[in-house]
Amino acid sequence: MSTPELNRLRTHDLELGTTEVTQKHVTRTVVPPRRVSQRRLDFEHSRPRWLRECIAEATGVFMYVLPGIGAIASFTLNAASPLGVTAFGSIFAIGFAFALGIAFAIITCAPTSGGHFSPAVTIALCVWQGFPLKKVPYYIFSQIFGGFMAALVLMGIYHQQIDEMKAVLLAAGQPLVANGAPASILCSFPNPGQSMGYVFLTEFFADCFVGLLIWACLDPANPFVSPSLAPLVIGLAYAAMAWAFGDATLSMNMARDLGPRIVAAIFFGKEAFSYMNYSPIGILVSIPATLVASAFYEFVMRDSLLVIETGHAVHADGDEALMRHITRTTTVEGFEERAGEYKS
């Protein structure tokens, strides 16, 4: 039977859904959603802002860690099968899983929390960009919790295959905590005989690379990265390092490492933290590396005057101080041109 709800579309109208993103680019219109009720506005207003931010950070880390360790699980479990089948996984697939997971996490959760998803990024933003210090512990705890929950879900999904792999390894007298063992699905472990100094330097430079790309994407004066492209660029920075140095042992994020490592210790023993004394490298190195990379960008690459000109910042001492700076540092022709822009 026909109802107004079924007949609400007119010719050339589009139904609600993903078509909404096209309404500014085509001549067709989208049926407007129902009106927002006061009850909904009151509910949204009553939500604690800090809690929403924490949940968004945890959700974002969950969204990026779960596909990544899922790809690792597919690769590890199939490679360990009696047939040695590796068609379901590779380093390339793992890199893409993390890259797309990061992009999806930023798209989904960054509008609420800012999209840090890493304690290293949170600390660097606190140091250089004025992120409130009192929020740092909440963000870091939420990020680690998101990684922890992603690892728990992964263990639930793959529990049967992991139990089978454990049984085979135990029968053969092989360890459960090692690179290529079940625990390595959740967090990184070095290869036997690897120098921890070598692993540290690899981790440090890979994290610096990623941190530099993040800071370039966050620079509003950078004309080569649009806000809509930044999530994919940041994700591909992680993927590039995974493709390049994944076989040399990488973590690249305290939340991605520590949360799943706790789960690995629960299921496979405390050796998850003590194996070859690697865990401090995987957990902590991303923080100083990101601070070094962001400091390099802040002191060498950033042009704060361009940021001010694009309207994304203001001079701490007001427009008069800005004009004095321009007077001291710009030629007469350049000063007149810039002065006219600021007056307009």
UniProtKB/TrEMBL annotation:
Keywords annotated in UniProt: Membrane, Transmembrane, Transmembrane helix, Transport
Keyword Glycosyltransferase on entry: no
UniProt-recorded name of the protein: Glycerol uptake facilitator
InterPro entries on file: Aquaporin-like (IPR023271), MIP (IPR000425), MIP/Aquaporin (IPR050363)
Superkingdom field: Eukaryota
PANTHER family per record: AQUAPORIN 3, AQUAPORIN OR AQUAGLYCEROPORIN RELATED
Localization annotation: Membrane
Annotated transmembrane regions: 54-77, 83-107, 114-131, 137-158, 198-216, 228-246, 281-300
Originating species: Trichoderma arundinaceum
Family designation: Belongs to the MIP/aquaporin (TC 1.A.8) family.
Gene3D superfamilies, per the entry: Glycerol uptake facilitator protein
GO cellular component, one term: plasma membrane
UniProt cross-references to Pfam families, sorted A to Z: MIP
SUPFAM superfamilies: Aquaporin-like
Membrane topology note: Multi-pass membrane protein
GO MF annotations in UniProt: glycerol channel activity; water channel activity
